[in-house]
Each structure stands twice: as C-alpha cells, then as structure tokens.
Amino acid sequence: MSLLRQVWAEIYSMFAGDTVMSAATLALVAAASALHVFAPTAANWIGFGLLAGCVTLLLVRVFVYASRTRR
Amino acid sequence: MYDSHAIAAISAAFLASLVEVTEAYTIVLAVALSRGWRSALAGTAAALALLVLMVVAFGPLLSRVPLHALQLPIGLLLLLFGMGWLRKAILRAAGIIPLHDEALIFEQELAMLKSGGDQPALDTGGIVTAFQGVLLEGLEVVFIVIAVGVGRHLLVAASAGAALACLLVLCAGAVIHRPLSQVPENTLKFAVGVMLASFGVFWIGEALDVRWPGADFALAYIAGTFLFASTSAAVVLKREAR
After folding, report:
1. Looking at per-residue confidence, does B119 or B128 come out higher?
2. Does residue A58 lie in a domain region?
3. B219 near B8, Cβ under 8 Å?
4. Is B87 in contact with A58 (Cβ distance < 8 A)?
5. DSSP per position, B143-200
6. So what's the pLDDT on residue B122?
7. Do the domain assignments include residue A6?
C-alpha cells in the first residue's frame, strides 16, 4: 500500500505540483476549447493566445513563489 | 529519415531519461554499497521490467486511438508536466529553491540504509529501496516516451532515445562508481520542460484546428518563446536576489 501511495503521489506531483498553476492551465485550455466551438474562424488567434496565456501564467506563478519565499 | 518533430520527440525522451536515470542511479548505488550489488540489481531489474511493461501495454493501445482524439488530452498532460518542470527549473536556476544535489542525496540514502545493520546477500530492504527508486524516477520517463511517441508512431524511436540515456548513465556509473553529480541536471530539466510545454501547446493547438504558420516548424518558435521567457525570468530573479 505504501508503494502504491508513493506511485500515486509521484503521478499527482507530475501534473499538479503547483495546484494553482495546473488549475489555471486547465481553465485556459477550457477557454481556448470554448472559443474554438463558438468562434472557429479565429483558430490561429486561439493558438497564439494559448501560448501567450501559458507563458504569462508560468511567469506569474514563478514570481509569486519567489516573492513569497523572500518575505 | 526523421523530421524535426521526431527529432524533438526523441531528444525530449533522451534528455528526460538522462535526468531521471541519474537520480535513480544515485539510489541504486547507495543500495549496492550498503546492501550489496545483488540486491540493488534485483530491485533495479524488477522495476525496469515493470516500466517496460507499461510502455509495451499502454503505447500500442493508445496508438490505436485516432490521432485527433489523442491530441487534446495528451497535449494537456504534456503542457501540465512541462510547465511544472519549467517552473521548478527557473526557481532552481535563480537560486530560490536548492539544486538537486546527487552527492548529498547519496550520503543520506547510504546512511539510512547502513543503519539497518548487516544484511544477507539478497536483502529485501535493499531490493525494495532500489525497486522504488527506479520505479518512481522511471514513471516520468514512461509518460514522456508514451506521450511524445504515440501520436506520430515514434514509440520505438522515443523508447530507444530513453534506453540510450539509460545505457550512457550506467556506463558512466560503472566507470566512476560515484554519484553522477557533474550531470547538469537543472539545465537538462530546463530543456525538457521547454520541449514538453511546447509539444503541449502545439498539440492542443492542432486539436483545436490551429493552422500553425510554418507547420511543424511552429514547435521551434513556440519553444523559443518558452525558452526566452523562462531564461529571462531566471536572470531577473537572480539579479533581484543579489
């Protein structure tokens, strides 16, 4: 059971080590998917928007963590 | 001949495997020196067999699913995984969280294992420790091999990339018999994080019918964007820390 728990913890940390970042990424992809359904002509903008959103999200989470650690 | 997409996929599997096998090797070496090589090798062999079984079981199974149906879920998992690695790599490069110290981990593992006293030639504790170490480190490699390999029938090539890294680490380990603390783990993690996050964005885009300008070349400028943003963040945070 201990091994299974460790395997589960490892898998969880692989995808949700930073829960806020993972949840926000999911929300971002959900928003991109919704846009794809309701505004399919803007497909390329959705792609670049997704890229910009992910990069911004990554930077925000890194800087938030850094500022909290230094306090 | 492999295209740029295939080369990126194989490189991601190779580099990720290099990092994870280096970490697993530290644990296996500690087991070998404290509980004997037979226990260490038995645990390692069992874990490797289980990891190969995972690739053999899940890889071909997923290969039967149409590519378009896989792009969104696999792309999302790659994005989550890649951004997680990248976040940690930036924080480590900036000195905010400590670098992975193989020598220190080796000493700690060795001290813990030696506290168990003298053991028989084939020791259960040693086998379990080696098995757990290799299995837990290998899970990430298995995920990467399947995720980057399944979409474009690159499973064998990605597995070969991972196996080559494994072989390299084992050869280096067999020669020096010490933890491989010279491997630039954070730089490798940085590179793998960039690659996986880029694959994630690219695949999600494809699933949402994005026609990336430059087709497969889009991977390069997506990776360039992640790389530029991440290295800039690491530099800024490092300067702020001074």
Report:
1. B128
2. yes
3. yes
4. yes
5. HHHHHHHHTTT-HHHHHHHHHHHHHHHHHHHHHH-S--TTS-HHHHHHHHHHHHHHHH
6. 65
7. no
Report the percent of chain A where pLDDT is more than 70.
97
For CA atoms B163, A11, B101, B134, give the dihedral sign.
Answer: negative
Higher pLDDT residue, B242 or B193?
Answer: B193
User: CA of A60, closest CA in chain B: separation in Å?
Assistant: 10
Distances (CA, A) of B204 to A35, B52, B78, B145, B230: 13, 27, 10, 18, 21
- Tokens encoding B146: 């399947």
Indicate the SS3 state at residue A16.
Answer: helix
Q: Is position A23 within any domain?
A: yes
Instruction: Determine the pLDDT at residue B4.
Output: 72
Domain hosting residue B175, numbered range: 4-241
CB-based contacts of B240, cutoff 8 Å, min separation 6: A66
Confidence bin at B98 (pLDDT 50/70/90): confident
Q: Which amino acid is at B159?
A: S
In terms of residue numbers, what domain contains A46? Answer: 18-70
Is residue A47 domain-resident?
yes
- Determine which of A1, A38, A62, A71 to mutate to test the interface with B (most B C-beta atoms within 10 Å): A62
Cβ pair A50:B204 closer than 8 A: yes
CA dihedral (B40, B134, B161, B227) positive or negative: negative
Greatest alpha-carbon pair distance for chain A in Å reads 51
Using an 8 Å Cβ cutoff, are B25 and B120 in contact?
no
Q: How many domains does chain A have?
A: 1
